[in-house]
Design a protein that fits this description.
With 280 residues, this protein is an alpha+beta fold. The chain contains 7 helices and 10 strands. It has a 4-stranded antiparallel beta sheet, with no helix packed on it. A 4-stranded antiparallel beta sheet has the order 2-3-4-8. α1 packs across α5, α2 crosses α5 and α4 packs across α5. The chain binds zinc ion. The site of zinc ion (ZN) has 7 residues, from α6.
Length: 280
């Protein structure tokens, strides 16, 4: 799933290429693509794209009169289509924006989940669906605020980092990388983390996001997950680049967490929660 750095770099790329160009039509390509009825998406037709932004894991296409808020979910992508390459029914198409100069942006979604979608919102999209209830962007947080949020909602650290209502923009990959960089167990209880831990975590959040952002900004299009830089994510059985120990994986609530025992858990192997009841 694309996370904050991938979406931020993509927003910057699309802004540079499309801002100032007028919309000539918006077409939902599936029945569930457009999640809102009011305002009418067609209200943006004839208006210039003011800017492309990002909030959490959403892209924002601001046409002044309204903003399209796009959630890519797991397999969604926004791809550029030249004027002569816009099939009427693209196979994985969800929605399309066609611009006055003939170019188009296609929201597509791989897989069968069909969860990517578009919200047309008037006024400031902040506080309105689907952005209502989002926590602050992960790259905007300082240590005192982070500590307050860590203690306000006691959870396992990895799940906490991925909870968009607490902190927006992080997914499984960045949560794995941040826990590793901060040398904290993915299962650490957020209620027990200290002010020093909050400082370490904020540094790890910023460094991890900046590393991925630099990588993404150097590309012409959004990366696929296998290309993205990292020390532990999807690197089970490889050597930890920091200490040389073997990266381990643990199943937790139907997803996989990758971590380094030496760096993060004092050498302890974390128990798979699907089998740990047999180990007690
Ligand atoms: Zn290590």
């Amino acid at each position: 799933m694309p996370e904050l750095p991938e979406l931020q770099a993509h927003a910057e790329r699309l802004d540079e290429r499309y801002a100032g160009t007028a919309l000539s039509r918006f077409t939902p390509l599936t029945f569930t693509a457009l999640k809102t009825a009011v305002p009418a998406a067609s209200d943006a037709v004839g208006h210039d794209l003011v800017f492309v932004g990002r909030r959490g894991k959403h892209l924002l296409f601001d046409f002044g009169t309204l903003t399209f808020v796009v959630h890519l979910m797991q397999g969604g992508r926004v791809k550029e289509e030249p004027p002569d390459k816009q099939p009427a029914k693209p196979k994985t198409g969800v929605a399309r924006w066609v611009f006055a100069d003939g170019r188009a942006l296609l929201l597509s979604e791989a897989g069968t989940e069909r969860r990517a979608g578009v919200w047309a919102v008037s006024g400031d999209p902040e506080g309105q669906p689907p952005l209502d209830g989002l926590g602050p962007d992960a790259n905007d947080i300082d240590p005192p605020h982070l500590l307050e949020l860590l203690h306000a909602k006691p959870m396992r650290l990895h799940g906490w980092l991925r909870d968009q209502r607490i902190l927006a923009g992080l997914g499984r990959r960045l949560a794995n990388e941040i826990c590793h960089r901060a040398k904290l167990s993915p299962f650490a209880s957020t209620a027990k983390l200290t002010s020093a831990d909050a400082h370490t975590l904020v540094e790890a959040i910023h460094a991890t996001i900046n590393e991925s952002l630099a990588y993404e900004r150097g590309r012409n299009d959004m990366s696929s997950s296998a290309d993205r830089p990292g020390a532990v994510h999807h690197r089970e059985k490889e050597a930890c680049p920091v200490c040389g120990d073997t990266i381990r994986a643990v199943e937790y609530r139907s997803y996989t967490i990758d971590y380094c025992p030496t760096c993060q858990t004092g050498g302890k192997l974390l128990a798979d929660n699907t089998t740990s009841k047999f180990l007690k």
